[in-house]
Write a structure and sequence with these properties.
Number of strands: 24
CATH topology of the largest domain: UDP-n-acetylglucosamine1-carboxyvinyl-transferase, Chain
CATH architecture of the largest domain: Alpha-beta prism
Strand order of the largest sheet: 22-23-1-24
Strand content: 25-35%
Helix content: 25-40%
Largest sheet: 4 strands, mixed
Number of helices: 14
């Protein structure tokens, strides 16, 4: 098991290249199940979650090959509908094979998903949607077992927007009979990117990025070659690193079009942004103002950026309030930040962050993917040595983070724990 060792405080300078989006790559990999032709994906990050999904695709009898930033997937000889517990338990996105399997094979045997322990994320919306599309779905011994004689279009309403639920049912609907209308659908850019891929494969979909999405089923899909969007959460994480270290860095290959809420809050806190090109921006900061943050579904402030901004706000000149509305257990990093000298109190679903003059290095433990990023950001500014343990969480969603930070001048290294 590895850990990060950070010697601080650090000042950053230079350029960083933002990797492809994890949350866009994973559903696109699952979409390969829908066709017997090649699906070629470019700009795919080299992450643990991507490797896990690739292994899952192989278990189904498909081909999944990596060449640099490119994946080739082919499910012409798909031979199984079984997604085993030992793979699915580590990554919630494994649930994304459910819709494509039912659509292509008319059956699926998928373990209940795992992933970060940040709160209850029920799959009932996925299951109810498939039932409305004429699938017989049951939970048996920890597995979702679905069968159908053929999916049929339906009107589906989500009580709350769900990203993976929206993606799963879109993929199920593209090969169904008739028209499916999904209301209160997720609007996230990663959902839009998936729909663009599916359209290029021949799917008939309208309304992506809006609350109502309409899918007209087709008989089959073609192969595709597609470049995955860049990771807005990784880009936002580096922006927070610039904030807390009061540094100037340039982000290349950044999905600026998808980052309005992150950019707005960055500027409110005191950061400065110069857009150099459609995918390039220079960010800097010399002060950290206290702010109020409330997480929300897109286009609101992303819950996946809450821990990173909290880390930066520990050094704000005043009191900040962060309200978490998406996951009920996403303040596990607070105790670890306080070990570094932060002054944070939790009250219900709100964190009250009283800015301090400095952070002091200590040993801290990552509890989930984004919390680990927040701890690394805090460690960059802390005086002395910070050891961040259990960074396997971080490796699920950040490609070579320590190498990228080192290129910016950070004193950070990976060691065996």
């Amino acid at each position: 098991m590895d850990k990060f060792v950070i010697e601080g405080p650090n000042r950053l300078k230079g350029e960083v290249y933002i990797s492809g989006s994890k949350n866009a790559s994973l559903p696109m990999m699952a979409a390969a199940i829908l066709t017997d032709k090649d699906v070629i994906l470019h700009n795919v990050p080299d992450l643990k979650d991507v490797s896990t999904m690739c292994e899952l695709i192989k278990r189904l009898g498909c081909v999944c090959e990596r060449d640099g930033k490119t994946l080739r997937l082919n499910c012409a000889d798909i031979s199984s509908d079984f997604a085993p517990y030992e793979l699915v338990k580590t990554m919630r996105a494994s649930i994304l094979v459910l819709g494509p399997l039912v659509a292509r094979l008319k059956s699926a045997h998928v373990s209940m998903p795992g992933g970060c322990a940040i709160g209850v994320r029920p799959v009932n919306l996925h299951i109810n949607g498939l039932k409305q599309m004429s699938a017989d779905v049951n939970i048996e011994h920890g597995y979702i077992v679905a069968k159908t004689e053929g999916l049929k279009g339906s009107n589906i309403y989500f009580d709350i927007p769900t990203v993976t639920g929206t993606e799963n049912l879109i993929m199920a609907a593209v090969l169904s009979e008739g028209k499916t209308v999904i209301k209160n659908a997720a609007k996230e850019p990663e959902v839009v990117d998936l729909v663009r891929l599916l359209k290029k494969m021949g799917a008939k979909i309208e309304g992506e990025g809006e609350s109502t999405i309409t899918i007209e089923g087709v008989e089959g899909l073609d192969g595709v070659e597609y470049s995955v969007m860049s990771d807005r959460i990784e880009a936002g994480t580096f922006m927070c690193a610039a904030l807390i270290t009061k540094s100037e860095i340039t982000l290349r290959n950044a999905p600026i079009f998808a980052m309005d809420a992150i950019v707005d809050k960055f500027v409110e806190i005191g950061g400065e942004i110069e857009i150099l090109a459609d995918d390039t921006l220079k960010v800097s900061a010399d002060k950290i103002n206290p702010v109020m943050i409330k997480t929300a579904v897109y286009p609101g402030f992303p819950t996946d950026m809450q821990a990173q901004f909290m880390a930066a706000l520990t050094l704000a000149e005043g009191t900040s309030i962060i309200e978490e509305t998406i996951f009920e257990n996403r303040f596990m990093h607070v105790a670890e930040l306080n070990r570094l000298g932060a002054n944070i109190i939790i009250s219900g679903n709100k964190a009250i962050v009283e800015g301090v003059d400095r952070l002091i290095g200590a040993t801290v433990m990552a509890t989930d993917l984004r919390a680990s990023a927040g701890l690394v950001i805090a460690g960059l500014s802390a005086e002395g040595r910070t050891d961040v343990l259990r960074i396997y969480h971080l490796d699920r969603g950040y490609e070579s983070l320590e190498k990228k930070l080192s290129l910016l001048g950070a004193n950070i290294r990976r060691e065996k724990q």
